Request: fold
Amino acid sequence: MSTLSLAMRDNSTMIRRQLKRLLRYPSMTVQLVATPVIILIVFVYVFGGTLGEGLGGGGRDAYVNYVVPGILLMAVATAATGTAVMVASDMTEGIIARFRTMRISRASVLTGHVVGSVIQQLLGMAAVIGIAFALGFRPNATAVEWLAAAGLLTLFVVAVTWLAVALGLRSPTPEAASNAPMPLILLPFLGSGFVPTDSMPTVLRWFAEYQPFTPVMETVRGLLLGTPIGNSGAIATAWCAGVAVISYLWAKNIFNKA
Amino acid sequence: MTNLAIAANGLRKSYGDKVVLDGIDLTVPVGTIFSLLGPNGAGKTTAVQILSTLIPADGGEVQVAGFDLARKPDDVRGAIGVTGQYSAVDKLLTGEENLLLMADLKHLSRGDGKRRAAELLDRFDLVDAARKPAATYSGGMQRRLDLAMTLVGDPRLIFLDEPTTGLDPRSRRSMWQIVRELVASGVTIFLTTQYLEEADELADRIALLDHGRLIAEGTAEELKRRIPGGHIELTFADAHLLDAAHHLLGAGITDPEALTLQVPSDGGVPAIRELLNLLDERSIDIAEMNVHTPDLDDVFLTLTGQQKVEATR
Reply:
């Protein structure tokens, strides 16, 4: 077998390892769905009536539609914490030293973590969208638009997960790893996730419009609900691809050096 | 010249100002057990980490399993297996899954992998626990699983870094038995340990590592021979008998208070028989007798003691 096909085999082995581990440790996955659902319920039923009026009428029903993309991204940011912790604690295990003394593709250890987390998060997202439907989420997207939204969200998940893996590798302990991705959880709030950016004071608005989460949320919202997308799609894709590539190289570099 | 599994020349490693390995030379012939013996912090684990490609050396020429360590680390990795002092098993996976994981990473076919896993579970007495997560295993079971995982790819050279540290005496004996069987099948073992008994039991050759330097090397017998201190201690009922014996033998150190006589001896049966016959002929009764043969403890304490004295001068 060629080096490339051996590397592919190592990747699939490590992905299976990670999926088995996730199944053995289901509380992480449950939390992954529960946290965004609780935030969704709070925002829809507590703040939703008033915030919905501020969107230009429509009350709670309009607000459910508005907030779902932000909730989805927040779910990804929350999951990043879990991924960073998992990677950091995996690195403290003797099994990683064993992998390093074996003739295998080294990046496969990390790829296993990333693909496992991405699959976990996409399933989690599907569950969140299902619950959002029950709460009154009514998108008007065509099949193609759904597919495009799913594609962008997947790319976003891949980017954030590689970043989380790099942060997890850089952390000296699993406890430190749980803090590193924290700022990501704030980004949906400091963007167009929960309220439109034009309602914010100037400095905050400037930040909100140029940070990477906003174009992703704007694009997903546009694809699912028909709001204008403008150039958000291209900007979102560029951000995700850039973060993914840089984080991948960063993570690989840290892992090879350690 | 015999084939060498490990040939190291001037191996060095330091972390900042701290010199961990200060130019050590190692030669380990294929099919033997070589033991690196030393106290905690002597540099044993660092040596294993370098030889098993985990960390790079700062200097020295090293060949492992016939490959240059610095230039061909992946070929070295293909030939070796490592079992560290902290169990290198995936605790969330079951014993069987851990073995199948190794089989996949060693690129065995599915059928071969399953056969190998079943065989190893049986050999290491883990069949009943095969479907349970490794986190639920006892220390001895985890160590056995660890070694079984190392064996999945049939490595020619195995590094065992303190394989029995923290194990109860029974688990330790069973680990020793496994190691002996491995060597009988032609595998080379590089063993680090802080237990002199373990090196004495298992190793063909022993190197003593202290403060990053090899202070002695040889077979257990050779090392013991370097140390004086073998003697027979005779205790007598009264001072009269003690003096008579001392006079008769013309050697030894007497302790009139304890009524003992220490006679230098290798402690072998012929020497004891000769001594007893001699005393018997003169009807000198012995109240008590103790034979003290030098063990590796003596060797180790003597040699590391000397090192420390030199270092403080």
In short: Residues 3-257 of chain A form one domain. The two ends of chain A are 29 Å apart (CA to CA). Chain A touches chain B at residues 1, 6, 9-10, 13, 16-17, 20-21, 24-25, 93-95, 97-104 (CB under 8 Å). Residues 11 and 111 of chain A are 6 Å apart (CA to CA).
